[in-house]
Design goal:
Rossmann fold, Alpha-Beta Plaits, seven-stranded mixed sheet, 12 helices, 33% helix, 29% strand, elongated, binds adenosine-5'-triphosphate, ABC_transporter-like_ATP-bd, membrane, Cell division ATP-binding protein FtsE, transport
């Protein structure tokens, strides 16, 4: 059985939201779908322990089929757990009746990858729909929808139809609609997967605003690590229906403990050997070869201008071969491939200086 690996304590400088104040709590939750026509039942989730702290943005990342959709659908009763229990605001919702779920769903907005707007309704009427269903008076609907369209930046599109909007605008309508009943929690089901990178950024910024300014807790599922990196406070990595790693984003992304997490992280920080170098790199040094180092920036140490420091203080020429440096919570995070002299004492001086800066450096080969 895969025990969840807890990441280290909160990263330096991150602003952790106390896990002690949960708004949603999964306790040993399992979900099996019955088999069809003689086939075995499908275990989509098992042994899920997950806490969503009040006010946080929590991301669940996993590959296709890992169980993400199932997990998020359990939170608004679109699926029912077959083991364990789920607590929302301290209420055990596991055995709720459909009527109980209807009331609960007003507290929980949801947005979708393909927006799920009604094509025959205008933007205004799409956002108004949950309020109409809740029986809100007309004047309240008018003021609430107007306020929400301003919040999501679509005040000028209120009479448009979904077909007249871009993908990003459609998702803004989805967000406004999800917020119409003033939920405490917003569930996001691959909300940016159908959008281009620039639009993704703007939707993520809007979600962050919704979280920070309205205090709405967000639980999102994604297969994209940049989404986690951009806006989440905490992350759970899910594989084959189990959480294999969970913790605050900074710790999990900078020090992944599980191979699946490491593979996701590699996608944003890993640096491949450039092809021209991969063909030439040797495992044994020949006379005159330079040493190729991979320097890993873990964010806690690396605000120092490393390369210039190596060049200026120890007088060693450093060639940058490839690199990928990103930032989490404003701190550099990623890796650089450099070549430095192989002879001593230069190499020892370089490795010593990197050690002083608390940067991880590995020798990955030699090139002429
Ligand atoms: N209604 C269902 N009936 C039977 N099996 C299902 C049902 N829904 C999901 N499953 C199965 O449960 C497992 C988890 O599916 P789920 O959709 O939760 O994963 P996912 O991580 O969201 O995948 P994707 O990113 O591709 O949507 C899969 O093996 C899937 O085939």
């Amino acid at each position: 059985m895969n025990a969840p690996l807890k990441a280290d304590a909160f990263g330096v400088g991150a602003q952790p939201i106390p896990v002690a104040d949960p708004i949603i709590r999964f306790e040993q939750v399992g979900k099996s779908y019955p088999g069809r026509r003689g086939q075995n039942a499908v275990t989509a989730l098992s042994g899920i322990d997950l806490t969503v702290p009040k006010g946080a943005i929590v991301g669940v990342i996993g590959r296709s089929g890992a169980g993400k959709s199932t997990l998020i659908r359990l939170v608004n009763g679109l699926e029912r757990a077959t083991a364990g229990r789920i607590l929302i605001e301290g209420e055990d919702v596991t055995g709720l009746t459909e009527a109980g779920w209807r009331a609960r769903r007003r507290q929980t907005g949801m947005i979708f990858q393909h927006f799920n707007l009604l094509s025959s309704r205008t933007v205004f009427d799409n956002v108004a729909l949950p309020l109409e269903i809740a029986g809100a008076p007309k004047a309240e609907i008018e003021s609430q929808v107007t306020r929400l369209l301003e919040l999501v930046g679509l005040a000028d599109k209120r009479e448009r139809y979904p077909a007249e909007l871009s993908g990003g605008q459609k998702q803004r309508v989805g967000i406004a609609r999800a917020l119409a009943t003033e939920p405490k929690v917003l569930l996001c089901d691959e909300a940016t997967s159908a959008l281009d990178p620039e639009t993704t950024q703007s939707i993520l910024a809007l979600l962050r605003k919704v979280n920070r300014e309205l205090g709405i807790t967000i639980l999102l599922i994604t297969h994209e690590i940049p989404v986690i990196k951009e806006i989440c406070d905490r992350v759970a990595v899910i594989e084959d229906g189990r959480i294999v790693e969970e913790g605050d984003v900074f710790s999990v992304l900078t020090r992944p403990q599980h191979p699946t997490t490491a593979r996701f992280v590699e996608a944003v920080t890993g640096v491949e050997l450039p092809a021209y170098l991969a063909d030439r790199i040797r495992t044994q040094a020949r006379p005159g070869d330079e040493t190729v180092l991979r320097i890993t920036f873990t964010g806690e140490n690396a605000t120092a201008p490393v390369i210039s420091r190596l060049s200026s203080t120890i007088g060693v020429d450093v060639n940058i071969l490839a690199g990928r440096i990103d930032a989490i919570a404003g701190r550099p995070f990623g890796s650089l491939l450099v070549s430095v002299p192989t002879q001593e004492p230069e190499l020892a001086a370089v490795l010593g200086a990197l050690k002083t800066l608390e940067l991880k450096a590995e020798v990955i080969g030699y090139v002429s």
